[in-house]
Amino acid sequence: MEISKLCLSCCETTCLKECLGRCPHAFVVALEWCHEEAAGDIGLTLGAISSSIDLSVIYGALHQNTNHVLVSMVWYKVLFSFFTFRTCEAVG
After folding, report:
1. What's the number of domains the chain is made of?
2. CA distance from start to end of the chain
3. How far apart are CA 90 and CA 24, in angstroms?
4. Are 17 and 2 in contact (CB under 8 A)?
5. Which domain does 86 fall in, by range?
6. Residue 2 has pLDDT above 80, yes or no
7. Most buried residue among 36, 52, 55, 79 by CB atoms closer than 10 A?
8. CB neighbours (10 Å) of residue 31?
């Protein structure tokens, strides 16, 4: 199933693909950065997803208002960098 969402920052439509048949025990949200994003914008995005988030907005198989906490991973050059809420403050 493909869902289209409007990005509030750049006003472009983004397609989200739902590919799981049941609620996962663990999940990953992948974010792809273009080369134009400022460090502050990336920091704000990571800060927003490191707090509690209702995944039923993008994953319809979950019950509504079931909040989850995400840990994000960002590809930077050749290395993986892991960010939590505290490190997002340093990036932003």
Report:
1. 1
2. 34
3. 31
4. yes
5. 2-91
6. no
7. 55
8. 12
